[in-house]
What we know:
The structure holds two protein chains of two kinds. Chain A is mainly alpha-helical. Chain A contains twelve helices and no strands. Chain A has helices at residues 7-19, 24-59, 66-69, 85-116, 121-134, 138-153, 158-182, 186-194, 199-227, 230-233, 253-261, 266-296. In chain A, helix 2 crosses helix 12 (266-296), helix 7 crosses helix 9 (199-227) and helix 8 (186-194) runs antiparallel to helix 9. Chain B is flat and about 70 Å long. Chain B is built from 13 helices and no strands. The chains are: A mainly alpha, B mainly alpha. Chains A and B meet through helix 2, helix 4, helix 5, helix 6 and helix 7 of A and helix 2, helix 4, helix 5, helix 6 and helix 7 of B.
Amino acid sequence: MPINYPENQIHESLAAEVCKPLPTRRTIFNNGMTVLAFTLTSLALLPLASVLIEILRQGLPRLKPEVFVSLPAPVGVTDIPDGFGNAIMGTLIMVGVASLISIPIGLMTGIFLSEVGKGTAMGNGIRFFTSILTGIPSIIAGVFAYGVIVLTFQGFSAIAGGFALAVIMLPIVALTTEEALKLVPTSQRLASAALGANHFQTTRIIVAAAVPAITTGILLAVARAAGETAPLLFTALFSQVWPEGLFNPTPALSVYIFNNATTPYTDKNQMAWTAAVVLVGLVLCISILSRLVFRRR
Amino acid sequence: MEDSSAQASDLTKVKPEFDILATDKQNLWLDQGFTWLLRFIACSTVALLFWLSWIIFQNAQPAIQKYGLGFLWGQDWDVANLSFGALPYIYGTLVSSGLALLLAVPVGLAVALVTSEDFLPAWVRSPLAFLIELIAAIPSVIIGLWGIFVMIPFLQPIQDWLYQNFSWIPLFSTAPSGYGMLSAGVILAIMILPTMAAISREVLLVLPKDLRSGSMSLGATRWETIFKVLLPAGASGIVGAAVLALGRALGETMAVTMVIGNLSQITPSLLDAAYSIPAVLANEFGEAGDDLHVGALMYLALILFVVTLLVNIAAVLMVRLIARGRS
């Protein structure tokens, strides 16, 4: 039921109400909060910009081809080439070992979560524990590898380092594989099943369709493992020489950066920045590329 | 007539690649075997978590038997005399993470709001959110390197100023060396910011448009809408983001190890050096020889593991609860 206001009165009072400017207090609050939000956002971008600029500024001048193929020079010796070729090689070896362990298991777990265990209590439980595993600090993975391998074999080794990295990679591979498989339309599964394919054959077809997305997930996990330091400090330790085998202490690029950043020698500090250029270049390229590809799908 | 029957018999002769009527053992075996293999491997991923807990618990036994729960409030850590207590590390871990959360929550919320509301055109918003997420991809050791050589020199004058003017407050009562709790808190805040911002952004993006329109059409300003409608509606998700960020902060190792100062002590001052559980694990495990020393470190790892596990379970459940409520 409409309320009957006298004609003229409503027009004037409403007009006055509507046209009244916002009270100063509310305007100030509104604009002030906008300014504050933008200030805080630029504050958040500041460290990222600073990190990237400093790495390039401090690291690039020393980035010569010889750093990739030389061993670390002893402190104070300047007439031989200084580099971290052994650390790059060690990182590649350990990430390789970790990939060999974690990718097959992670893939299978991901396939299980998306194709077999979907919606079942077992599937939900496994997904829950896998996501819990993602949240475990990387240093705990290192402690685990120390307990399983270093204590058993009485020595630091590339195997122990690779094992620790595998524990970090496994849940990432599993969960990204599941996400990738979820993107494949259900109609494709139904079509395959309708043609009489069994579980194994259907899964083979679905996985083939999801290969690009699965690859980006694996690349993200590899990038993450390549940058890890904490679990390597007491599983692979470090060495000043070329990697000697899977059962010996092995250098890694990230540990090289840590060691050189925390020494008092300016020369070595500079080398840490140079190694940082290499590591950040590697990690950021992988993760930006894979994210861009993933975003486009 | 004859033709068509001949065709039909031809058709039955064609052996299809996938034979639906086939019950031959190989097919059945492939199907069942494959499913069971997947089940087994998926279970082994979960078994890894239990194996991990068991190994850490088992190796912590020497320290657990010697100290029991008293380890939690023991205060001295003397490797030479084999006497161990965890309190300084627990204190350092909790305070630095709390400080990080205090700094990262408002900044993360601001980022989430700027990148989810229509302050900026869409082509600026998504790259901005992407850039912030990029911080998470930079290895921790490199953030630590930056912390030592860029952030600490930058924070030094600020810390000096705090000490000179506010040294009567216990929080700022010691002369700063640059390395300390405050630096650790700031660097942790930077590292958990992407988690906080990304998840809050997701939460804000899925809030129904009607909520905004309704509030705005009733005459609320943009920020009144944000504070009175959007943030309360997304509160559970935002709290979930903060809890997840806290989990990250508790376990973060390298960057903290490089800037916290690594002194096993408990002081109220934020400018003083401190220590954290991940940092002591990173620094001492490589040289630990004695069973009791390894045991004490494993005990510390067990404490960290249990705490992060509880925090992560809480966060996962919270985020899942919200996802369920939404669909």
